[in-house]
Amino acid sequence: MLTEDQTPSLRDRVTSQISERIIDGELRAGERIHERHLSEELGVSRVPVREAILTLAAQGLITVKPRSGAFVRKLTRRDVAELFDVREALEPAIAAAAARARTEDDLAQLRAAINNASEAAACFDAPTGSRSNAEFHAALARASHHRRLQVIMEPLSLTIRRLFRTTIVGHDADLLRDHAEQLAAIEEQDVEWAGILARRHVIRTRERSLAMFTDEDGADAE
Fold this sequence. Notes:
By secondary structure, the protein is mainly alpha-helical.
């Protein structure tokens, strides 16, 4: 149970718990978000839950409809295509910046993310695998030490994690290989090659991901 306290920390924790339920599929696409139920389950008032819903709506996980309520947003093929358009533009720049600016602590965090993903793949733990692979990308953004790139990527992180959760099954080895190659380039501070590998990784995962989304409609539940 969370301690009732209207602080940013509480709002962050409520937002995190709701987002985890969406990413892990406990709250399904199209499902209505009930403020009262969530507030009771989390042991908080409805105020931080309402604030969390607005935050997650801004980050693309929830759709708020006037007079209808809040619903878990459905990912459509167009959503996925646009997400990868942005990733293809930004992630090579992030990887190149990381190759220039990374510290030993950054490298340790990247290795830890890869190791955790490898362990998850070995025991077919898709939720942990998706979190670990998403953490690799988050650690990569931190390793860039480029504040503007990090600010731009941050709102996309939850949708990227949600997509990983959907598409990781059967592709763990591909992700691990790509991430290991990027890490090697960053360790060697090979700026150009790190950017090339990042772009190639995005292109590969784009093709797999789009293949899983054939419905262009994807209208949210009423």
